[in-house]
Amino acid sequence: MSAATVAAGLLTCAAAAMAAAAFTSGGGEQSGVPARAPAQTTAPASDGRAVWIANGCGSCHTFAAAGAHADIGPDLAATLKGMPPSYIRESIVEPGKIAAVGFQTGAMPEDYGTRIPPAQLEQLVEFIRSGVRG
Fold first, then answer.
1. Of the candidates 18, 127, 112, 15, which has an alpha carbon nearest to the alpha carbon of residue 77?
2. In CA terms, which of 29, 60, 70, 88 is 20 to 30 Å from 109?
3. Which secondary structure element, helix H or strand E, spans residue 69, and what is its range?
4. Hey, what domains does the chain have and what are their CATH numbers?
């Protein structure tokens, strides 16, 4: 699969996620109808790469292992190399705790800890960890 195909797929996933968020957030309580809770990610539990794609990670991050080349967030291979799984996990679920050099906190959604089921979070951490080894 070409990098362009992967990038197009990631952008499509990110656009769908943003559209869904726009329709399910804001305004619900103002109209007297309670807002819906965000849906959990439904990526196949056996594939950390699928979790990466389902959560639109490549729309912000560069990560060669996933064929992603975005520049909103840091290049994960550069910023997470040599880091233990606990640090990678914390970077996902508490992104505002520590910012990568050259980046500010606040750009990454803070709800991945509740949006991504624990088993899928561990698969995502392992996928990222396997891509930064070396």
1. 127
2. 29
3. strand 68-69
4. 3-132 (1.10.760.10)
Per-residue three-class SS string for 14-63: HHHHHHHHHHHCCCCCCCCCCCCCCCCCCCCCCCHHHHHHHCCHHHCCEE
pTM for the whole structure: 0.66
Residue 134: what pLDDT? 53
Q: For residue 83, is it left (φ>0), alpha (ψ between -120 and 50) or beta?
A: beta
Handedness of CA 98, 18, 66, 62 (dihedral sign): negative
56-87 pLDDT tens trace: 999 999 999 999 999 999 999 999 999 999 99
SS3 68: strand
Contact 67, 81 (CB under 8 A): no
Per-residue pLDDT tens for 8-32? 444 444 444 443 343 333 433 344 4
